[in-house]
Fold:
Amino acid sequence: MKFEELSDIDELLKKHDEYRARCLNLIASENYASDKVRNYLSGDFSNRYGCYTTMNMDDREYTGNKYINEFEQATHDLVRDVFGGKYADLRPIGGHMAGMAVVLALLEPGDLVIEVHLADWGHGLVGPMCELRQFEETINVEYMKFDKTGAVEVEALQKMAVDLKPKMIIFGGSGTLFAEPIKELREIADRENIILAYDASHVTGLIASGVFPNPLDEGADVMFGSTHKSFPGPQGGFVVSDNKEMMTKVGHALSPSLVTSHHLNRLPAFAASLLEMKKYGKAYGSQIIKNAKALAEAMEASGFNVKGSSRGYTQTHLILVNVGEYAPKAPGKLLEKAGILCSDDFAGSVPEIRIGTPEVTRRGMKEANMKDVAKFFKRVLIDKEDPEAVLKDVEKYALSFSDYEYAFK
Ligand SMILES: *Cc1c(COP(=O)(O)O)cnc(C)c1O
Structure:
């Protein structure tokens, strides 16, 4: 494709939209923001600067910020209302940058962090950062352990915290099945001066819905994450906390160090999606989890080995399926040929696929539909049917769910 006219651009975008409408999107880190929310992304804010470098948002570097300032403050109020926390920062343009800001603001050279290993579906805020020489030499990282069901091993983590005295523990990953033991670490954290941070990137929408424990209520000092995974907003990031000193440091790491233009056009769209979640979040979040559980049961009944069966498979929007027996390598690409989009991971000890329900739930699927979805997986991975043949049925199925629910129309 060569872009010469605007129509070339339009044509390729149209192809993308048509292609994705025919796919069954089970990528746990994606969602469909409503058209109302999407429309807000194209406003004038996308060409404006809203720099501020202190906790006082009235103290602006740029002129012309009269309504931008008011808008940002009102959006912060909404964030505090939905997620709790006395202080919010919405300048990170994604969950990763939000985590970087927390890590860079609150750690000193020589500090140790305990986080989730990539092999356990960690996102890896500190581990991969240590591949950069500057960080490798200054920040140390250890990893929390998970049991066979996918839950954090509480006692092992308590012992690590006491023995290793990390400066920070970062809970939360990209494959969170069960709520983490934050309460169980709070007392040790107080005694040993450990910061409990929560990476909510995946479960933000469930927390907003009130169907997953809010880490701040459980005792986390600071929470950060993405606004576009289980939370159906525009792509973006956030940090919230009750701790003014920490948030001052986080804000200072963000500006002027990490970000100067914070992509203001995200904010009207994010504010709209916050209002949407206040109205529809409860119903949406609980259906996401019901669907995830129903899908786990249907996958297990189809012959797959689903993680966490003894704990009811999942408390979140995703399930982890061991497909080693059927697809030793790259099942994600094979499934993609059949129009089924999900994630695979082979960093861990078992080859797993991660299947998420935020988008199909938004598309209107309920528990009964999860049986059909499990059948598509079975046809490709267990029955080894030609993916092209399965694709035809997947496309028809996906197209019959082209609308969306739990949203302003
Ligand atoms: C997706 C993810 C991130 C990164 O968020 P972006 O919004 O993609 O920048 C950080 N942490 C975890 C656990 C994630 O899953």
